[in-house]
Amino acid sequence: MARRIVLTVLALITALLAIVAVPLGLLTAAQDRKDFQREAATAAATLANVAEERINDHAKGTALLRSVRDLVAAGDRVTVYDAAGRQVAGSPGGPVAAGHITAGAPSPSPHSYPAGDRLVVTSPVIPDSGSGAIGTVALYRSTEPLDHRVVVLWTLIGAVSAAGLLAAAVIAIGLARWVGRPLTTLDAAARQLGGGALDTRARVSSGPPEVRRLSTTFNTMAARLQSLVDGHQSMMADVSHQVRTPLAALRLRLDLLAQDADEATAAELAGAQEEIARLTRLVSGLLAVARAENVTATPTRVAADAVVRDRAAAWRPAAEERGVTLTGASPAPVTVHMCEGHLEQILDNLLANALDALPDGGAVQVAAAAAGGLARITVSDNGAGMSGQQQHAAFRRFATGAPGGTGLGLAIVDRLVVANGGSAALSDTPGGGLTVTIELPRAASPRNFRRPGALASGSPGDLNRF
Fold it and tell me: How many structural domains is the chain composed of?
């Protein structure tokens, strides 16, 4: 933003100087040329008046010779001709040939024209009777002083314009920093807050009043957000502890009762134990969703292709027990930018859901590939799939079509994917089944990223099924 402000101010000042300074220079230079020509014409006309006494009255011409000498001393070349074209006074071989003058011709007006680096001015010698020109005065004046004044004029205009641009640049840079620095601070604070650093505050003490008020509002919002998230996490932790403990105690009591109960009572107690186990999974799933919604880990580079192959290998024994074929493939290395351990958790939830939905003889395929600036990870099965309405609601909490399911597996996947800057979508597998497509931002460089050795999510048997 600072650069745009500086460039905009400089562009406006440059346009203003071009509109004002250039026409002013052109007008001034044109006026100087007119003044120069007028001065030369005046000098020639004055000399013509002096020459009239010499030519018409046949005087000695002392005044004419003095005037010619003064003009020559000033750097001009002067020639005076009579009506017959004979040179009366001045430098021999002057700028006007004698053939240009005709006796008795009407009185021509003074005329000037450029000749190289000099200006030639011709002025007729008119007698008092006004009958016609009786001679001509030719003045040959160098344009070097005029050219020098024009160069000085444009140099001055250029210097003033450059000084104006420099002053405008200094002012624009100062203004840009005054406005942009607090906004940069706010932007950095917003990025940190968006990345999960809830204790981030924007420390802005300078800049426009509107920006300072925005900083205060941002800090208030961040404080309230931190308070709400901390309270939410604390509540979930308390609920987990308070609910799991009585559930465990209740399950233990039911186990003791089932030992001495008759067959019918034992069957009822077994059903109660299944409901308690389902309630335990539901509580664990809610905690997992809450953790996914409040991601604060630092993103890193993760080899998605290696994670896909590793999770497929980890789940393959469980798939074989159910008669399901599980394959994992990645045609080329794919690196994503996300929090460590989240991709493993995403794939574990998707594979658990797929295996639960497939009958004996089903197949699941996991694949990872690059798609422009994104990494695309797909988990496809050939099971019964979902209807369009079920797919639309699948990422909501408690939305499930499986008996005994909690409807939290895909909700956890969606929260984790969104928290890492990606997106999740459901579609039909060609030939029948369901395909989950995960798109995540790719890492800028394949260097220094983590390839899974010991996976944080453990084995499938350690997972809570959601």
Answer: 3
Distance CA 220, CA 345 (A): 34
| Residue 68 sits in the same domain as residue 87 | yes
**β-strand 325-329 against 77-82: which pairing, if any?**
unpaired
Start-end of H helices in 294-423: 304-321, 342-357, 388-393, 409-419
- Its pTM stands at 0.46
User: Coil, strand, or helix at residue 377?
Assistant: strand
Torsion angle of the four alpha carbons 310, 311, 312, 314, in this order, in degrees rounded to the nearest 10: 90
125 & 206 share domain = no
pLDDT in tens, 325-381: 999 888 888 899 888 788 888 888 888 888 888 888 889 999 999 888 889 999 999
Q: Are residues 55 and 202 in the same domain?
A: no
How many DSSP H helices and E strands does the chain contain? 9, 12
Which residues fall within 8 angstroms of residue 397, CB to CB, at 6 or more apart? Answer: 286, 289, 407, 408, 411
Q: Are residues 268 and 305 in the same domain?
A: no
Enclosing domain of residue 346: 297-462
**Strands 325-329 and 363-371, sheet pairing:** parallel
Digit-coded pLDDT (tens) for 404-451:
455 667 887 888 888 788 888 999 888 888 899 999 988 765 444 444
287 and 380 co-located in one domain: no
User: Average pLDDT of the chain?
Assistant: 79
User: Pick from 238, 264, 295: which residue ends a domain?
Assistant: 295
- Cα angle 442-444-450, degrees, rounded to a multiple of 5: 75
CB-CB neighbours of 138 under 10 Å: 24
pLDDT tens, position by position, 174-220: 888 887 788 888 888 888 887 777 788 888 878 788 888 888 888 89
Q: How far apart are CA 136 and CA 88, in angstroms?
A: 10
Contact 215, 204 (CB under 8 A): yes
Examine the domain organization and report whether 30 and 135 are in the same domain. Answer: yes
- 10: nearest Cα among 168, 145, 198, 142: 168
Q: Within this chain, do residues 213 and 66 fall inside the same structural domain, yes or no?
A: no
Residue by residue, DSSP assigns 340-367 as TTHHHHHHHHHHHHHHHH--TT-EEEEE
- Domain membership flag for residue 10: yes
SS (H, E, C) 213-239: HHHHHHHHHHHHHHHHHHHHHHHHHHH
- In whole angstroms, what separates CA 187 from the centre of its chain? 14
- The residues pairing with 300 across neighbouring beta strands, listed in sequence order, are 338
Please report the pLDDT score of residue 455 as a whole number.
41
Domain end residue (candidates: 149, 171, 187): 149
Give the model's pLDDT for residue 399.
56
- Nearest to residue 377, comparing CAs of 323, 439, 316? 439
